[in-house]
């Protein structure tokens, strides 16, 4: 059963009363409760700055409705530029200089894996991942690290199951980055195919920053796959799809949550190039739906110039989980109690994510599944099965 928290659309009505002061030595002694965040605000992954802004809009709206138990949330946001060294510097600043109560940050898996030793050194510091998906972040379990987004393991399994949902799909190829993020999808995908008695008919690598996918596309075309799994970031996914269209690779392409279908369509500008595109979708409803309208309104209230797409809301579920746990702590807000309550979070339904979130002392990967999204007559639509490509 999905447990719907009082904070669902909580940023819309999250006004609760103060319950008094807290101990200065063991808690964040006075308002506000300070939350540290780091994300790629600049650089090649700056398209994901909106994941930070989405979570930030939740915290801002909670503050505008009175805070949590009478205490405001103060967000300290740092730019990591998707650079591990900058990520480490950001975490050191947030902990040593800003002295945050917890950290809710990280979109790039390479950055999060680089800062992981810093987090492990202070096992009292709660760290909640913002959007990074590598399964290595939460497996094996680290006591103070929680991952409230679908891991690369969950994404890869979903992509393979979806590709094989059409009975005639027997030959699956893969195009992937070769970095840590790519590898963290690639091996689970290969393992999932193996469980179905299949091996990839071709695997090609397309590195980040590349501008031409001709050679990779021609290799895939020669393999004659029934479907292609694309483990690519937005810019490279758009380049590959444009070249696939150019060279006649007209088979379904199934992408990760690292890209959004709306942004990919805008980047390519060729409707026929995305007509067979399916992307892992971590949200419960399409962002244009009536159910998501309140979230879009909250975001636009604080970030009116920012475009909205799927990535905007990936960090919202984690922000709501953090707020829910802080609320349940009452006036005694300590790191120890926060970590304990996070381990008790069960079937938490943010209303935003495609599935509920659960943590336990033995499992800190909170999301196990997601949806798939596809353009149907140009409209992003959640779908359950792979359809036959149109001629």
From TrEMBL:
InterPro entries xrefs: Leu-bd, Peripla_BP_I
Leucine-binding protein domain span: 32-367
Span of the signal peptide: 1-24
Keywords (A to Z) from UniProt: Signal
Organism domain of life: Bacteria
Pfam families listed in its UniProt record: Peripla_BP_6
Family membership: Belongs to the leucine-binding protein family.
Name this polypeptide is given: Amino acid ABC transporter substrate-binding protein
Organism expressing this protein natively: Xanthobacter autotrophicus
């Amino acid at each position: 059963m999905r447990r719907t928290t009082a904070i669902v659309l909580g940023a819309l009505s999250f006004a609760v009363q103060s319950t008094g002061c807290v101990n200065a030595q063991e808690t964040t002694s006075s308002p506000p409760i300070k939350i540290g965040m780091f994300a790629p605000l600049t650089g090649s992954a700056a398209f994901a700055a909106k994941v930070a802004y989405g979570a930030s809009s939740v915290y801002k709206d909670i503050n505008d409705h009175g805070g949590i138990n009478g205490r405001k949330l103060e967000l300290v946001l740092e730019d990591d530029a998707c650079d591990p060294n900058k990520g480490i510097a950001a975490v050191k600043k947030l902990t040593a200089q800003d002295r945050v109560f917890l950290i809710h940050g990280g979109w790039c898996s390479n950055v999060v894996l680089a800062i992981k030793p810093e987090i492990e050194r202070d096992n009292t510091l709660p760290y909640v991942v913002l959007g990074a998906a590598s399964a290595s972040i939460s497996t094996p379990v680290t006591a103070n690290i929680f991952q409230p987004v679908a891991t690369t393991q969950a994404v890869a399994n979903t992509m393979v199951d979806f590709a094989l949902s059409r009975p005639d799909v027997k030959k699956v190829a893969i195009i992937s980055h070769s970095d840590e993020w790519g590898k963290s999808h690639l091996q689970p995908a290969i393992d999932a195919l193996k469980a179905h008695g299949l091996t990839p008919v071709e695997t090609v690598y397309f590195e980040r920053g590349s501008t031409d996918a001709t050679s990779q596309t021609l290799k895939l075309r020669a393999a004659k796959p029934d479907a292609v799994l694309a483990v690519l970031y937005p810019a490279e996914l758009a380049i590959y799809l444009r070249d696939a269209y150019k060279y006649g690779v007209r088979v379904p392409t199934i992408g990760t949550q690292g890209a959004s279908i709306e942004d990919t369509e805008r980047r390519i500008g060729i409707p026929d190039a995305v007509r067979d595109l399916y992307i892992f979708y971590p949200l419960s409803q399409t962002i244009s739906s009536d159910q998501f309208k309140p979230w879009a309104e909250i975001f636009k209230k604080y970030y009116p110039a920012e475009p909205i797409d799927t990535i905007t809301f990936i960090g919202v579920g984690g922000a709501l989980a953090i707020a829910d746990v802080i609320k349940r702590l009452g006036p005694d807000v300590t790191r120890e109690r926060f970590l304990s309550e996070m381990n008790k979070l069960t079937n938490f339904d943010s209303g935003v994510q495609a599935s509920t979130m659960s943590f336990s002392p033995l499992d800190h990967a909170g999301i196990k599944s997601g949806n798939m999204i596809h353009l149907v007559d140009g409209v992003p639509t959640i779908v359950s099965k792979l359809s036959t490509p149109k001629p």
